[in-house]
Amino acid sequence: MIIVLKPGTSEQDVQQVADAVKKFNYEPRLIRGVERTVVACIGDERNHHTLESLIVLPQVESVTPIQKKYKLVSREYQGRDTVLDVAGLKIGGGTFHVVAGPCSVENQAQTMETAKVVKSYGATLFRGGAFKPRTSPYDFQGLGRDGLEILKQARAATGLPIVTEVMSPQDVEMVASYADILQIGARNAQNVPLLAEVAASGKVILLKRGVSGLIDEWLLAAEYICVHGNSKVILCERGIRTFEHACRNTLDLSAVAVAKKETHLPVFVDPSHAAGRFDMVIPLARAAVAVGADGLLVEVHPDPATALSDGGQQLKPKQFGQLMAEIRPIVEVMGKQLGRA
Amino acid sequence: MIIVLKPGTSEQDVQQVADAVKKFNYEPRLIRGVERTVVACIGDERNHHTLESLIVLPQVESVTPIQKKYKLVSREYQGRDTVLDVAGLKIGGGTFHVVAGPCSVENQAQTMETAKVVKSYGATLFRGGAFKPRTSPYDFQGLGRDGLEILKQARAATGLPIVTEVMSPQDVEMVASYADILQIGARNAQNVPLLAEVAASGKVILLKRGVSGLIDEWLLAAEYICVHGNSKVILCERGIRTFEHACRNTLDLSAVAVAKKETHLPVFVDPSHAAGRFDMVIPLARAAVAVGADGLLVEVHPDPATALSDGGQQLKPKQFGQLMAEIRPIVEVMGKQLGRA
Amino acid sequence: MIIVLKPGTSEQDVQQVADAVKKFNYEPRLIRGVERTVVACIGDERNHHTLESLIVLPQVESVTPIQKKYKLVSREYQGRDTVLDVAGLKIGGGTFHVVAGPCSVENQAQTMETAKVVKSYGATLFRGGAFKPRTSPYDFQGLGRDGLEILKQARAATGLPIVTEVMSPQDVEMVASYADILQIGARNAQNVPLLAEVAASGKVILLKRGVSGLIDEWLLAAEYICVHGNSKVILCERGIRTFEHACRNTLDLSAVAVAKKETHLPVFVDPSHAAGRFDMVIPLARAAVAVGADGLLVEVHPDPATALSDGGQQLKPKQFGQLMAEIRPIVEVMGKQLGRA
Amino acid sequence: MIIVLKPGTSEQDVQQVADAVKKFNYEPRLIRGVERTVVACIGDERNHHTLESLIVLPQVESVTPIQKKYKLVSREYQGRDTVLDVAGLKIGGGTFHVVAGPCSVENQAQTMETAKVVKSYGATLFRGGAFKPRTSPYDFQGLGRDGLEILKQARAATGLPIVTEVMSPQDVEMVASYADILQIGARNAQNVPLLAEVAASGKVILLKRGVSGLIDEWLLAAEYICVHGNSKVILCERGIRTFEHACRNTLDLSAVAVAKKETHLPVFVDPSHAAGRFDMVIPLARAAVAVGADGLLVEVHPDPATALSDGGQQLKPKQFGQLMAEIRPIVEVMGKQLGRA
Prior knowledge:
The structure is a homotetramer of 341-residue chains.
Chain A: E1 2-5, H1 11-23, E2 27-32, E3 37-42, E4 60-64, E5 84-86, E6 89-91, E7 95-101, H2 108-121, E8 125-127, H3 145-158, E9 162-165, H4 172-178, E10 181-184, H5 192-201, E11 204-208, H6 215-227, E12 233-237, H7 253-262, E13 267-269, H8 271-275, H9 281-291, E14 295-299, H10 317-333, E15 337-338
Parallel strand pairs in A: 7-8, 7-14, 7-15, 8-9, 9-10, 10-11, 11-12, 12-13, 13-14
Antiparallel strand pairs in A: 1-3, 1-4, 2-3, 5-6
Helix pairs in contact in A: 2-3, 2-10, 5-6, 9-10
């Protein structure tokens, strides 16, 4: 921690800060500058009480941590890329996977049709929502367990592992009995009890960044999962909320590059939720590949105009085929292996 | 819903849109404009399938809902102010209450001391966190049930009703057995299973706006609680995340004025979390009263420099006394009654 | 400047940083921490080359300035409040002034009528735009010099000093020959050539915060004016751009409190542009007084429905009268003197 | 325009709105819905007074424009891509150009060295700032005309056309006599007098998006230039200001895709200013190519650690060589021709 004191602080007030620092078991080092005195505080910031509360002392101008708060997810802790195994698929470490499927599981026919068609175009995992976190209580809330049963049939029919969202700690065990990957949605990005519970399931977790989540908060949410004994985490960037509303969110591809640098975890991108409009999904998917992502989540529906949720952002099967055709050469340029290829 | 078609849309394509609209049981009315044709769709938007998915049709330029999505919380539904009863206190409808207490319940002594002193200065409810949603897994996570026991003692000693946060659906019953008001924190502002569970408790719910929550989303979260049979909701503005970082969040007092106009619910303000720094709490508290809020949440700690969480934003008891002294005449100007006065 | 080195940096690489620091005439002090070495760099950051470019060295993790960049506008430089004289009015230092008038000067009748009526309700300065910075080239761009002539007549008729915006360095001399206070609009908040030119006019400058201006940038824009020899600056908060769109901007009243603490300059608030809707202007005006502002800018139009610009945010004369009635007792609570009172 | 009336509006009040609409020469069409009446107003919104001011009528709930405000820059106005000629280079329409050079022209040696090296790696235009818009008055403000003279020498030595910023209307003629492309910086994105003046120069204009500029505002700024008779505009996305601060700005690549769809103008990307840190420039450059941009602006400095401005974001020459090597195959995948190739 670096504590900067206000100009003109008396020797006695400097000493008071040094004493407070010692009380928290840091070692203070005083640096007398031109205008200000700085107290550098030596000690492991993760194991000690934060000194940030010393800002309440009248002679303190600022308190700045110098350590990063996350550890287990960091490149410093593990230099090599994490490679996860999902039903025999390798995720991360030079592979590139496309997870595709409808926003919501609406019924058996829609789900099975979508699963087969996305597989035919090269998707290697299948997604579909059975529990839907909707902004309005009057919107379709998902089929629940019935939806999970349909997903199970889709896996049986196609062999594609299933990615689906879980919203409540109480549902984790049930959802985990159907899913290959548990998704934590953007609205639950800091839902600590849920993070603890999914960690305990032992499943691979796909962790979306919060709607207004700082990259640091996103990595700390992953750290929560790791601290609870499960390091099988895929990070997923899905756009952040900004002032711009031409798209529903602003896809932050720099976050992908930062996350790839700071952590050893695979990083996926969800261009469908980022854009909120189908006509932006393909260009953003290409850009996601080029920035260095390890996979994509893409929403596909046989007839988006009649979808029960987020119809405007779902691709028709042929459009999904075009997406796959357009990303394939960029995946190659990036030196990655697409799907099972 | 208003559907705007692209310039030069053929008669056949106009008809296709009209047919799609009919299929969803709206009645289409065509308006031929100078450059564009508009399809006005008549039907209750809350009971019908949304037409927003029609944006995927190539001839559609935009689809705009015209109804508000919330109903039970709206002034249209109930014109008069909701007045809640909490252990004999009237909340809303011309009263003004200050909820004060520490960020976290740290131990019995700190909690009891704070409860007594905030009461002496005029607080009418007591707050303290037993379950703490922290960004980092290495930070203090709260005392849990032990903290609730301490809060119970504080109520016994002072008579102040207790406001405390609940983070998990599984904990609702237990927390509700101790608390007078259940708080939903900003990170859980769209945690649908939790909203349903607290609604079922029958308690008064203090619902914070999400860190990046639109006012519409905040009101829809309240609508979720109402739809689940509990209309005892207090809205609480606590600052939103913006680019500015002089304060931790940007207190959005226009949201208070908008919420007072759009809904019949009481609206409180939490200047402590908004500011994230103690020296901004008092001016923001004054402004919150003047904009028309019905109450405040203020963090107070006997010794903020040693606090286990958010020390930098907590007031010392004397500073809290000053806050009460400064808001009192503004509460009067606003024609409201402060606390039990 | 505080330079944090990456864990495991070799002694030689530490020395390279220390040498680089010396080359820029700072004195480096090494602090060996638990995981990281910190280089505290002693030297006046305003007179020296920034060290921030050292982030390009591979062993450097972060570089953090510790001095504030502004000086002349700071409370450290001048402890007492600046009090400005505008045609005999004292601005700042315990007074409270309301500047009112139409968004645009549209014609003589509209302008004169508004000037008289706002004066009758207690406004002490008159505002009106002759040069209008509009988002679209197809919108009304203002009357230019003809508008200034009308403003001159309004001053002659009412005695109210004139506040009006100038957008181009070439127009400063002309506008200054008509206006008592030159306004720098939010779009020009970092227009350096314009800041230099208005400084040279010797007029009082009302400096709006940029649409997405950090408080630091706002104060540095004021510093530009001071550096060019003119310290007669009024800061004006007018809302910032955020994700929320219930109002056009989000009024940031914490910025007022921060600016009052950090600087000695008067701080005004423009609730009309912040809200972008007339029905939020009065509550925000009350809050602005209560947070500690020294004045308000309020838009008033005899018939807002027919206004040539921003009709939706302008108050009718009677509504302005209500605003004055509602803020008066709060100005008194704040211990300030309203207008000439 | 679509005007939505409040539920329960009387027939007389409906008629009042219809009459107001007629007064502004629109033709009103009434649609009686389930809860609300809608007034669809027929008329060209660009040639008529806006109806948005009717929001002040008490019976009006909302007023929504349905036309886009820009025209000359739109795909509706011109379907084919604009292709610009700059000293024989074709910009847009299937070409891809990299503009490279230092943030600031610091001296002759640094500038000439950089120009030669970026040319050797494949840059086809040279950039360098002579007039620098700096946040602080204490930072390096650029060499002014001396800098322009050095740029002239760089062009003479390398044949690379020059891109440089102009900040003041008074300087346009002078800067235009040196530059091949005039750059409008993000801080001047809505500086209307400057937009008018650069339009009059007849030069190609590189128009950066504002720091918090909506895509609509960016396109309207381009429309200003076109309305003033100059349609030679290159749009340039350079990151927007959001809550995230891992990078200085958030590069918004969806804005590139939206701009490519909405307009016929070439769209460039500046990953250097977006990132504000050199280590993110290459991945963002790759992504910019893949999303569909027509060119890049990249900052390069022989020794970034000693740069007089923005050292932290400038690439060393070898890093720039790596950038060119990494984007080349993606430019090919996109079916574009890189530089003069």
